[in-house]
Amino acid sequence: MTPSRRKTQPEPNPRSAPKPRPQLPKAPTGIQGLDEITGGGLPRGRPTLVCGDVGCGKTLLAMQFLVRGATEYDEPGVFLAFGETAEDLTENVASLDFDLNHLVARKKIVLDYVHIERSEIEQSGEYDLEGLFIRLGAAIDAIGARRVVLDTIESLFAGLPNPLILRAELRRLFCWLKDKGVTAIITGERGDNTLSRNGLEEYISDCVIVLDHRVSAQTSSRYLRVVKYRGSTHGTNEYPFLIDSDGISVLPITSLGLKHIASSERISTGIPRLDAMLGGKGYYRGSSVLVSGTAGTGKSSLAAHFSEAACRRGERVLYFSFEESPDQIGRNMRSIGIDLQPWIKKGLLHIHANRPTSAGLEMHLTKMHKAVNAIKPQVVIVDSLSDLVLGDNKAEVKAMLMRLVDSLKTSQITTVFTSLTKGGEVLEHTSVSVSSLIDTWLLVRDIEISGERNRGLYILKSRGMTHSNQIREFLITDHGVELRDVYIGHEGGLTGSVRLNKEAEIEAARLRKDQEAEAWQIELENKRVALEAQIAKLRADFAVQEAASLNLISQEKAVKEKLEQGHDEMEVHRKVNVKPNKSGRGST
Amino acid sequence: MTTKPTRPAQPTVKRAPRKAVSTRYILKLYVAGQSPKSVNAIANIKKICEENLQGRYELEVIDLYLRPQLAQGDQIVAVPTLIKKLPPPLRRIIGDLSDTERVLVGLDIRSKD
Q1: Cβ–Cβ of B68/A135 closer than 8 Å?
Q2: Are the beta carbons of A97 and A63 closer than 8 angstroms?
Q3: Measured CA angle at A61 (ends A56, A38), to 5 deg
Q4: Total domains in the fold of chain B
Q5: What is the end-to-end Cα distance of chain A in Å, rounded?
Q6: Nearest chain B residue (CA) to A126
Q7: pLDDT tens string A531-585
Q8: Structural domains in chain A?
Q9: What is the pTM of this model?
Q10: Which of residues 3-22 of B touch A (CB under 8 A)?
Q11: B70 lies in which domain range?
């Protein structure tokens, strides 16, 4: 490790400005992921040491490098095997889809088995490995090889006497390979405290890759690490890798940077009311969504809804199930009115069902990664995350998820994870504490009121959009998920039949209020009528009194006139005035 | 190429009947060009053969630079390599054959004591 740092430091760090600096020429390995970690492959024309314990995939990595070189990059190769015969090798890798016989026949690959039988060998005086060089040289020249594999170098030390000579010769071999200009992989076993058994190869190689194989919680995981790469930057972490029918794939999903673009496109959740809760439009494309909740709260149903909605838009959906078989998912979702079968038939929906215990975490991650690369979906469902937690591996699950989320986000894939919250746990705790990786977090929970269990849904967070703060009642009906408003009043949120009761009560109360108002109205009307009648009566009384009063007044007047008239007549009679004369009376 | 043993003293009473005196040795020496080790090896083996196996050995010297394709067939890795094809068992002696004692042991001419 130290020598690599020492060697790479004189070259200014190319990370800051990679373009103007000449890049070290690299030979792509064709191994998924490894080329990403190394920034393009192994150092071209230089030797690379691949070391690791027994059974960790050294030979396979080397063979894949050679086969891919021959088939994909038109670089023929020589495989010098010290451990296995050519026939064994051919048979061993045939299961991996590598047809060595065919490649050998087409002069793309030369397989040479170097057999050293220690018991036959006696040493007398100084020797060198020129024989090996000549042999290798002849093979290289025969097909114009650009790549060479020596597997494994330890066999030389086991088979030949005098390690001192061998060490010197090994050094010469590395130089010779460089002179030849071939990109070489030399495999070696790991020493106790050194990377290689002789403690030499790692110093004379330009690139050192360490493979490891560890077992934890009864599942084994393989890891790859680039320890040294002269003249180039490289990912330094331990990357899990996987050996399957396609050979090796390495997972460089390491959050090398948070560089994914953020789409502002919104996609429907498949549930209109939920869309409405999420600012009216649903999730962001390329965001990560977590649906967490206790058992049986409908997490999978939400995921299925989303899947179906995506399929309807013509998008491809990759559904990783760790709990149910594809058939079971199909049946269960049909029961709530979501028929996924047509989408599976159309090739839009892919369900990958696996028991979480079937493989180690890295294996799962790699499988997922591979499936994503193969299917290129727009939507990925992981149901459920909690299943991946076996024993005490939460930190690893989180690391794995981080890598998964980052890789999916980079590809603009919208992901829905479901997570089971165990009884007694705080709801806002996911079993693997992934909340920081999640953009939109829906929480489904049980609401227990008066002997009933109902489901409630609310949005715990949703980055970058306005979202409803209300709890919605979450119903699973035979035509899918429905969200209902929850009664919210001074008695708190009510759900289920209590909500129905309450709603009925409210309705009754409303009716009653209506009736009361009507009664008041009538009473008021009555009062008005009564009042008006009273007014009319008073008016009538007044009219009568007025008439009577006027009558009296006129009578009084008449009486008064009469009296006056009587007085005049009396005076006439008394001979005061000759004639009753008005004017005369007036003049007087 | 004579079959007559040159040193009557060599086959002792015990060893002589077991290993036929007339056993023919077929030897191959692989060398690489005119390197010092190669030149030494050729000189050494010739001397040893003449001294110990006179008349009953065949020695073929193969220069791998000239015939590289032969390296694979005889599984040559180290150079120089002397192969004792006959008599059995097959033996390989690597090095410039400067240690005569070990060469003789390797060729089963002398037993390991």
Answers
A1: yes
A2: no
A3: 110
A4: 1
A5: 154
A6: B95
A7: 999 999 999 999 999 999 999 999 999 999 988 888 888 877 777 666 555 554 4
A8: 2-11+26-118+127-210+229-250 (3.40.50.300), 266-485 (3.40.50.300)
A9: 0.63
A10: none
A11: 15-106
